[in-house]
Design a protein that fits this description.
Radius of gyration: 16 Å
Oligomer: single chain
Strand order of the largest sheet: 1-2-3-6-7
Helix content: 10-25%
Number of helices: 3
CATH architecture: Alpha-Beta Complex
Strand content: 25-35%
Number of strands: 8
CATH superfamily: Peptide deformylase
């Protein structure tokens, strides 16, 4: 297990459509997932896609610890989750702007239109196909990470580049922007 370097926006690997993983039970897939989790723990992140560490494969790892959820939000904690070959299906036309940041675009935040509810299908490291529903911030997180699998970083999804700002201009301390409870609620 290892902490990996994060690729920055502009790196050619981040522009590729990631390859499907043929065998989710392969030991190298589990090792990659552990490295991604170690990397998130090291940088105190919530989600990462394999292309962000230079591996163009369809793998996402995320979690939502209690300390990242603002008081009053309806969002619950999310356990460590590994998604192999995730596929998102938006549920309805309800889209809202949400502030996002990205490990591959450090120091900046942007407001990105995201579907408020979705269904996601994926395989586990045991090869089991699962399906989940997500709303609010959880849905936004999944869309953000899955965008990396298709060669997108969040500024490419923005509808108004006037909403791309430096963290310092938002009065953000440290690495993470504290979302409002409304941005977390589903």
């Amino acid at each position: 297990m290892a902490v990996r370097d994060i690729l920055m926006m502009g790196n050619p690997t981040l522009k590729l459509t990631a390859a499907a993983i043929e065998d989710p039970t392969a030991p190298e897939v589990a090792e990659l997932a552990r490295d991604m989790q170690d990397t998130l723990v090291d940088i105190k992140g919530t989600g990462i896609a394999a292309p962000q560490i230079g591996v163009s494969q369809r793998l996402v790892v995320y979690h939502m610890p209690a300390e990242r959820i603002p008081a009053g939000a309806q969002q619950t904690t999310l356990p460590w989750t590994v998604m192999v070959n995730p596929v998102i299906e938006p549920l309805g036309d309800d889209v809202r702007l949400i502030w996002e940041r990205c490990l591959s675009v450090p120091g900046l935040y942007g407001r990105v239109p995201r579907h408020n509810r979705l269904r996601i299908r994926f395989q586990t490291l045991a090869g089991v196909t699962e399906e989940r529903l997500a709303g609010g911030y959880h849905a936004s997180l999944l869309q953000h990470e899955c965008d990396h699998l298709d060669g997108f970083v969040y500024p490419m999804r923005m509808t108004d580049l006037g909403d791309l700002v430096f963290a310092s201009e938002l009065g953000v301390e440290g690495l993470f922007y504290r979302y409002s409870p409304e941005e977390f609620d589903g």
